[in-house]
Please model this.
Amino acid sequence: MQVQRWTRTSRWFGAAFCVLVVVLAFVPLVFDPDIVQKLTTLLILVLLAVMWNALAGYGGLLSVGQQAFIGIGAYGTVFFAGQGISPYPAMLLATVLAGAISLPISLFALRLRAAQFAIGMWVIAEVISIVVRLDQNLGAGTGISLIQLNQYEPNFRQAYTFWLALAFTVIFLAALFFLLRSPLGASLRAIRDDEDAARSLGVRVAARKRLLFVLAGLGCGAAGVLIVANTLFIEPTSIFSVQWSAYMIFMVLVGGLGTFEGPILGAILLFAIQTTFTQGGPWYLVGLGATAALFALLLPRGLWGVVEERLGLQLIAVGFRVVEKKPDA
Amino acid sequence: MSLLLEVSGLDCRYGLLQAVRGVSLEVAAGETVALIGANGAGKTTLLRAVAGAHRPHAGRVIFDRSDITRMPAHERVARGIALVPEGRRLFPSLTVEENLRVAAAGRRGRWNVRTVLEVFPLLQARRHMPAATLSGGEQQAVAIGRALMSNPRLLLLDEVSLGLAPVVVDAVYRSLADVIGEGATVVLVEQDLTRALKVAGRVICMLEGRVVLEGEAASLDRDHVVSAYFGLRRPA
Amino acid sequence: MTIVNAVLQGIFLGAFYAVLACGLSIMFGVMRIINLAHGDLAVLGAYATFVIVEQTGASALIAFVVSLPLMIVLGYVLQLTVLERSLKAGILTPLLATFGLSIVVQNLLQLAFSPDVRSLGGSAGTITTASWQVTSGLSVSALGLLVLLVAVLLFGGLQLFLSRTRVGWMMRATAEDADAAELVGIDSRAVYARATALAVATAALGGLFLGIRSVFDPVSGPTQLIFAFEAVVIGGMGSLRGTLLGGIALGVAQTVGAQIHPQFAVMAGHLLFLAVLIVRFGGARLRLRPV
Model:
């Protein structure tokens, strides 16, 4: 018997992924700005899904309040840009700000379990939203534009934003990938499978969860940054909307909770649905909500879970697999 | 005597762990059967499967000529099966009387709050106290009384002496003798071999999920039982 | 005097939150789950009453009595279709499933009733407007008193039900040890379904008061859920009496907070909730050592 990390498929896929990133980097040079903007949206969805899955799928932390960090990222960008910092550095600062704020929040939020954590995070998002609304300099309740980005020519602006989105997505995917492959990864999977058992084996559950929480804070902050860079206008009701959590839950549940590949698949699916049903509207949301609920009840490991189970396929080598060797005759 | 319980080819699993492997046994009405065996032999799981608290992987449980393998636990209580679970499992915030009355499920018979308190007189004074405040022996008495409240035809007792002082165990068994004297059919799991052989008419010994020895208590040689208990000599 | 009035109005408001929170508290107490669609069910109840008022011209209170059995049936159906299955699947599944349900209910309401705001105030009779001016700065509204009275009766009645009736004992027994309850002949599925039906019925009552006190629209649910959950947590999860007190504490925090700044009302409630969480689960120490 022998333990493997890389399979032939995952090796090929790793190489294909690198090629894909390089190809994507050329997208703004080839395609129209509106396609670039759409693909930026896709990358934002991937980033959000992967971060929510990092929390729920690996940390057992179901947050209905990640919009707090999306909002901090978006409003942070507007704030720093308003202080005279050039827009793109302002975006990096805002991402760091979201991560920095997630640390003190984690101190008490991680003490909570299940519903208390879920709704506790939601209330925190509400509180931050109210604070933003009280600030006239941030447009209060009516919203604010990132006018500083207008100094760039639209085509270039869209390209820069896309590259930033690509960079963020690759960085956060890589961070999670290496985190899961490191010795920490085994303890994270142990927490995912059985938190109490992991604790009794000496896994420092709180510290591990904090790591995921801050990573997700940074990642959702980055997504917020990209949202404001992509749309140039934000207002508190929509950027702090619990709808973001609904999207994240949909993508992760449909794609596959606790799998690495699943959330990416879920994000592509949501993107496809959004581009097909451009009208949006209540029926579309009824469908999303019902699908998420059905997956939670009937297919808790999502579509990717089925793929993994049926085909034994693993594209990304975060786990281990045991290979039975035929005994010598 | 008519057959009350018939278990055939029972397999019980917890995930990959197989706790009961192909067990078959029969209990006639009015019998007292002791189920013995080392820890992990599958006795508790077997009782829980008979009571409906554990869904078996394979096999059948037949009670009074009807197949109850798929029947939920609460319906089996109405049919006349009651289990006194390991660890007593009282409802801690309910008083002694509430614990008893909440378990009065349908079947009529001689057992009610008054008659239970007569058999366990030590509970009389505790009647209106929450179960959480009782001593171990008192809790065990409530647990047995609670099972009696459904007027069972088959009473399953899982390690009623666990964690109790010897004097208390004596008192519990004295009360049980009354119950058995009423003509109830009893299957009990007991760690104490001497006690098991004394109270039971028949003994079934389990090892690693299988029945390895079965016989009349009076006719069994104690050394024979001990070696089966520890698996020192496998039956052919 | 304004502060006394604020506290009094806060008690009335808090009694409303307690009614909203009652069902959430029951379901958590019995099944250890939080129904994230609870607020939406309250709003759905308000719409059900609204429809009957529109169709028949009856008073909102009478219409509520008619809509109540429908909501109770809905509670049973919800338990048997969604919640029962999710209960067996770990602690996150009920949250995920009811969150999905919440989105479904909100958007079905959008489709059926448009996003317009509605109210039951006009159809509830003089109770909506009647009030007594005690002193110049202190007024007692009939509606506030009614809600407080109903809340006290509801919680008192539930307390009696749980401590005095056999069905109540069965509910407590199942809450404490569902496995053991089954073994003494209690049908835990039926108990759970009964608890959910009761919870949805009280949610509908909360929805009625929401509609009479102010206005509602298809997406009012999440806010009601947050307030209800805050009331449950402030009062101590798993305690019904605590939920009544928690609701009142939340209401008072909001009305007193509004005295400081009108926009501070909701914020004050949130802060009280977070403070309670910090105190209860506090003692968190930041370890700066790397993981």
Q: What stands out?
A: Chains B and A do not touch (no CB pair under 8 Å). Chain B has eight helices and ten strands. The mean pLDDT of chain B is 89. The CA atoms of residues 36 and 205 of chain B lie 5 Å apart.
